[in-house]
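User: tokens in, sequence out, please.
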């Protein structure tokens, strides 16, 4: 992905032509050039002090090491995740920041077992396998013939009607792993379409329906390609905190490709044993919420956040220990400076982002009456690499004010212009859907493709200077928004951002 290097003047002129009414409604009165210059000068001075405080006294790496090593991976609903929520609550309070937990329940916690698999024909070979999150266990060791199933349309599945009972389903062909280096961490995981137009991808709900259709055929196991190099695993879930309809697992890209090639030549049989278990009843899932009260507009919120939960194959370092500890460090920094923001600055460490956002849903439900007073949101959720831009997320009506908020950061942190790509895919999307201006940090890859959801998501991959800079940027952005004389404009919740 190449970010369009447009000047802010060109962007503002374009947007002013497209949406003058929206922007005009935002401001109570026109702001003079002198007022804008004064705001910029004040923000430059404040942002430099924020960066200096982080550089001199950061506790981010100390906190991140404790989180990833002493607590470890933090699957939503697990004891480790609740321990992390309790610990971050204490850390916020240690820094003098008011904090509390907001708790919901999920139907079942998932406990990973010891999974095994083996090719038994036309050759004998043990292979590594990992149950998908909340996968139903197999009934002991099960054996079956391999059937490769293409899942690109509902019509594709009709060819397999009555042919999958007891089979080991190899879902789709082997993944195409990009060979070109990505410019940002988001594309390291979700590669953008390139070149000519192609058939649209299946949406998440369509994939859920197709998985249900496959499950109705009663296969023994469904296998996914992890889609990573070097025998690394991936992890996800199609079942939201309940046992899946059939056992589902990941195998490595290398083994998936081998079995796929063997199946193209003749009959292949596998043995699989998946042993995950579940809590017998609902378990708590908490988010950590902290805030520094506003001095002039305490009922207005500027929110920065990251998800504290992780998948459980690694340590949850880059996804998303880095983002959550950057939020904690931003809170420490602003409190240590002793400043009084005009608007309340809220810091949220979410849970359940990896399974669809139960944490942010809890916050939005608990604070539904306050949505109109949520001024803006910024989420950090793609690892340890340098933040080099912020995505506008199609909120072009906010570009003029965001340009003012962003320009001091751009100069201090050597950022590219605001990105005009839509990224989505993290906790800020719930705010977008509610009409709140919500943005996303764009970061350099920094090993994110490999670490994302895999066993190599570990503390040693963290780049201290880059994630500390990210913490400073979060704090500075929150401060700049808190001090902006005018609020960023909301959009219609019906817009379906």
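Assistant: Sequence out:
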């Amino acid at each position: 992905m190449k970010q369009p290097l447009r000047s802010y003047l060109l962007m503002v002129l374009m947007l002013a032509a497209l949406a003058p009414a929206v922007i005009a409604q935002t401001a109570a009165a026109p702001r003079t050039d002198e007022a804008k210059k004064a705001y910029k000068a004040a923000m430059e001075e404040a942002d430099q002090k924020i960066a200096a405080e982080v550089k001199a006294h950061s506790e981010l790496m100390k906190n991140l090491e404790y989180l990833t090593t002493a607590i470890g991976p933090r699957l939503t609903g697990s004891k480790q995740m609740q321990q992390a929520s309790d610990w971050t609550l204490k850390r916020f309070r240690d820094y003098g920041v008011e904090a509390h937990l907001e708790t919901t329940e999920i139907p079942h916690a998932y406990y990973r077992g010891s999974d095994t698999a083996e090719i038994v024909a036309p050759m004998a070979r043990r292979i590594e396998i990992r149950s998908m999150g909340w996968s139903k266990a197999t009934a002991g060791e099960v054996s079956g013939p391999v059937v490769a199933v293409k899942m690109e349309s509902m019509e594709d599945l009709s060819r397999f009607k009555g042919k999958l009972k007891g089979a080991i389903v190899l879902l789709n062909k082997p993944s195409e792993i990009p060979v070109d280096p990505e410019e940002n961490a988001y594309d390291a995981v979700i590669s953008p379409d390139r070149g000519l137009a192609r058939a649209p991808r299946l949406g998440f709900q369509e994939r859920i329906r197709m998985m249900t259709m496959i499950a109705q055929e009663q296969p023994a196991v469904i296998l996914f390609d992890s889609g990573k190099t070097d025998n690394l695993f991936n992890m996800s879930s199609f079942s939201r905190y309940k046992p899946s309809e059939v056992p589902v697992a990941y195998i490595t890209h290398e083994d998936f490709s081998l079995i796929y090639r063997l199946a193209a030549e003749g009959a292949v049989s596998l043995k699989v044993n998946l042993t995950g278990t579940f809590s017998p009843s609902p378990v708590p899932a908490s988010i950590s919420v902290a805030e520094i009260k506003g001095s002039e507009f305490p009922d207005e919120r500027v929110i920065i956040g990251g998800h504290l939960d992780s998948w459980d194959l690694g340590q949850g370092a880059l996804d998303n220990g880095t983002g959550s500890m950057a939020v904690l460090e931003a809170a420490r920094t602003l409190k240590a400076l002793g400043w009084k923001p005009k608007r309340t600055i809220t810091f949220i460490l979410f849970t359940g982002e990896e399974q669809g956002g139960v944490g942010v849903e809890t916050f939005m439900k608990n604070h539904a009456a306050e949505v109109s007073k949520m001024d803006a949101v910024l989420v950090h959720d793609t690892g340890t690499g340098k933040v080099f831009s912020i995505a506008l997320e199609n909120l072009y009506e906010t570009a003029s004010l965001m340009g003012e908020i962003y320009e001091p950061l751009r100069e201090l942190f050597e950022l590219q212009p605001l990105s005009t790509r839509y990224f989505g895919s993290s906790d800020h999307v719930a705010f977008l859907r509610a009409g709140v201006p919500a943005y996303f940090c764009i970061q350099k890859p920094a090993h994110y493709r490999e670490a994302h959801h895999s066993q190599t998501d570990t503390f040693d991959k963290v780049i201290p200077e880059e994630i500390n800079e990210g913490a400073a940027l979060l704090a500075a952005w929150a401060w700049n928004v808190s001090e902006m004389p005018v609020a960023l404009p909301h959009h219609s919740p019906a817009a379906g951002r």
